[in-house]
Amino acid sequence: MTTATREETLGFQTEVKQLLHLMIHSLYSNREIFLRELISNAADACDKLRYAALDNDGLYEGDSELRIEIEHDQEAGTVTVRDNGIGMSRDEVIANLGTIARSGTAEFLKQMSGEQQKDARLIGQFGVGFYSGFIVADEVTVRTRKAGTEHAEGVEWRSRGEGEFSVADVERPLHGTEIVLHLKEDAKEFADDYRLQSLVRKYSDHIEVPVRMPKTETAKDDEGNEVEGSEVTTWETINEAMALWVRPKAEVSDDEYKAFYKHVAHDFSDPLTWSHNKVEGKLEYTSLLYVPGRAPFDLYERDGARGIKLYVQRVFIMDDAEQFLPLYLRFIKGVLDTRDLSLNVSRELLQQDPQVDKIKSALTKRSLDMLKKLAKDSEAYQSFWNTFGSVLKEGPGEDHSNRDKIAELLRFSTTHTDSATQDQSLADYVSRMKEGQQTLYYIVADSFNAAKSSPHLEIFRKKGIEVLLLSDRIDEWLMSHLTEFDGKKLADVAKGDLDLGDVENEEEKKAQEETAKAKEALVKRVKEALADEVQEVKVTHRLTDSPACVVLPEHEMGFQMRRIMEAAGQALPEVKPILELNPEHALVARLEGTEGDNFADLARILLDQAIIAEGGHLDNPAAYVQRLNALLSA
Ligand code: ADP
Ligand code: MG
User: Fold this and answer.
1) Which CATH number fits domain 248-386: 3.40.50.720, 1.20.1270.90, 3.30.1330.30, 3.30.230.80?
2) Which of 224, 248, 263, 549 is deepest in the core (most CB within 10 A)?
3) Residue 292 Cα to ligand 2 middle (Å)
4) Angle CA(406)–CA(275)–CA(50) in degrees, nearest 5?
5) Domain residues of the chain, as ranges?
6) Are 415 and 452 in contact (CB under 8 A)?
7) Which atom from ligand 1 is nearest to the alpha carbon of 42?
8) CA 263/CA 244 separation, integer angstroms
9) What would the mean pLDDT of 10-15 be, rounded to a whole number?
10) Segment 14-67, tens digit of pLDDT
11) Atom of ligand 1 nearest to the CA of 85
């Protein structure tokens, strides 16, 4: 028995307490995952030692056969998971097993309340694996020693998972880590050979490090009776112990791919799809990329975890290598194993390596192809789109070379279905274009309903021309980069002059010109009355039901984008809108017959209404109300 010295008791960080509480209460029905988590940590520790030993093989301390061992003791009610990996120093034990290091996790825990608390799956993705031991154990003991240190530098950590833990120095001849779970009364079932073996196969088959369990054999005498004292214990490897991505595709089952995904992505739920490729030639790499079924909590955080796991010739190099995929594909998870980089590559070196860019562009194509394939299953693709669509919309702006491919993957709401669900592709739209229509039309507004009921759509409804209804924050930015599809232009119906191309016939165009002539005097008067507010006044044929609308010059930033930027505190140069009047409308006819101050007031009311209908805010709403009331009571 070793003697413990320098013993101290420390409190868990508040977030750890919250996490323990959440986990113990919400993961109950899924509690077998503790074994996966502990094995996963042990495998990571072996990976880290293998990597560190590249420079200094003394770290193996003469034992370079990396392995994980699982033992149990039915009588004592314990399960032990042991590895001969990198191990931890005292300071590392305190930091790693007393706090939650990952940024964002604390914030996430705060937000997780009420109903969400029950959604246990959510907590799987935070790298909180170690604490899952407390789902089945009422006491956990960790003994560890950092590889390459003195035997006296071992550390023992103990906790009952109730707010505090103790650490002490212990003598420890073996480097690596041993975790002993003292099982709760109702979790004793896990101290069982068969149960443990089947869990290892279920969750950890793909782990490259062998996972071994002891097997006791007893010699039998001639009559088949066990010979007392003849027990020999041998270690039996339980898992496949081969990196999954190295195996030929045909030999890997869907269940194995899914289990591996859960390991790399720290996710509890299944991926939507995956793509496994071996490439030989100029570049040599194997990649296994996944599309997750759910969004991580930090998808939109600038420093959120992203990227794939990087291996060089099967040696684990780093997690979250973000250099191999563009930002707009940051939801993709997986593994890259390559021969094209050196083993001592670092994050800094990755940024300069020209091979990295080549692999990045290859993986980008793979990912887009994988999504294209997924799109054939409309239900699965819809689920993807609802989760990650607004991230993919960053694509055309970020990656010009793949713009057309990305454009095919986009989905929109349109007037064709009038549904808020974004489920129509640009190709769908093109297939429904009217004869003579050369342009794809869209409108951007603050919400789906605002887009759908915008006065700008009136003429399009009348003519039966479809319009894409855009209301995501990113949409205007997206459309500024997506100016063409399938050789046809895309146009914002609220910008520039309205040109319906050949959908309108010569007669209609002539009639419009005549109306414009007939209303010249009116237009001039309105322009004078509103000289400070608008840059131009026109008669329009966009409208059928509304008296007026505002539009912007073609190359101006749109209304929605302006509002987003202003809300973010950006000072923007003022842009006066163009006011367009519907010559067929009764209010416009009335305006024409009005004189003096009343004329200016009515013109101003029409302008203000057009701004409101478009989703904008009036500088002086009270003045608008007064004018309108004066008109109503006249
Ligand atoms: P994660 O594995 O996502 O980092 P965990 O809660 O599973 O989160 O583990 C927390 C940390 O504790 C790990 O990052 C690692 O530094 C350390 N750790 C856990 N288990 C081991 C082990 N067997 N050997 C060495 N370090 C470990
Ligand atoms: Mg872990």
Assistant:
1) 3.30.230.80
2) 549
3) 19
4) 120
5) 5-237, 248-386, 411-502, 506-633
6) yes
7) 23
8) 11
9) 91
10) 888 888 888 787 777 778 889 988 998 999 999 999 999 988 999 999 999 999
11) 24
Helix (H, G, I), strand (E, B) or coil at 565: helix
3-state secondary structure of 530: coil
The span from the CA of 243 to the CA of 109, in Å, is 33
Assigned superfamily of 5-237:
Histidine kinase-like ATPase, C-terminal domain (3.30.565.10)
Ligand 1 atom at shortest distance from the alpha carbon of 176: 24
- Six token digits for residue 201: 């196969």
Give yes or no for residue 431 having a pLDDT over 70.
yes
**Ligand 1 lined by 124 (C-beta under 6 Å):** no
Q: What are phi and psi of 396, to 5 degrees?
A: -55, -30
Q: Which pLDDT score, from 0 to 100, does residue 137 have?
A: 96
Cα separations in angstroms, 158 against 8, 9, 106, 110, 183 = 11, 9, 23, 26, 14
* 411-502, CATH topology level: Rossmann fold (3.40.50)
CA distance 403 to 485: 9
The CB-based long-range contact list for 474-480 (8 Å cut-off, 24+ gap) reads 474/390, 474/393, 474/394, 475/393, 475/444, 475/560, 476/444, 476/557, 476/558, 476/560, 476/561, 477/397, 477/561, 478/393, 478/394, 478/396, 478/397, 478/410, 479/442, 479/444, 480/397
* Ligand 1 pocket check for 88: Cβ under 6 Å: yes
Helix %, strand %, coil % for the chain, to 5? 45, 20, 35
Centroid of chain to Cα 425: 21
For every residue of 420-465, which 3-state class applies, written as one string? CCCCECHHHHHHCCCCCCCEEEEEECCCHHHHHCCHHHHHHHHHCC
β pairing state of 232-237 and 439-444: unpaired
**From the CB of residue 394, how many other CB atoms can be counted at a distance below 10 Å?**
19
DSSP code at position 473: T
- Is residue 531 within 8 Å of 522, Cβ to Cβ? no
Closest of 11, 265, 199, 37 to residue 131, by C-alpha: 37
What CATH superfamily is the domain 506-633?
Heat shock protein 90, C-terminal domain (1.20.120.790)
* pLDDT 10s digits, 196-223: 999 998 878 778 899 999 998 888 888 8
Q: CA separation (Å) from 587 to 547, 551, 592, 593, 632?
A: 6, 19, 9, 10, 13
**What phi, psi does 524 have (nearest 5°)?**
-65, -45
Q: Angle at which helices 596-613 and 520-529 pack, to 10 degrees?
A: 80
The mean-pLDDT minimum among 20-29, 127-136, 148-157 falls in 20-29
Whether 47 lines ligand 1, by a CB cut-off of 6 Å, is no
> Is any atom of ligand 1 closer than 6 Å to the C-beta of 133?
no
Neighbours of ion ligand 2 (CB under 5 A): 41, 129
pTM here?
A: 0.78
Is residue 337 in contact with ligand 1, taking CB distance under 6 Å? no
Question: What are the start-end ranges of the E strands in 250-402?
Answer: 273-279, 285-291, 308-312, 315-321, 333-338
For ligand 1, atom 17, the nearest C-alpha belongs to 96
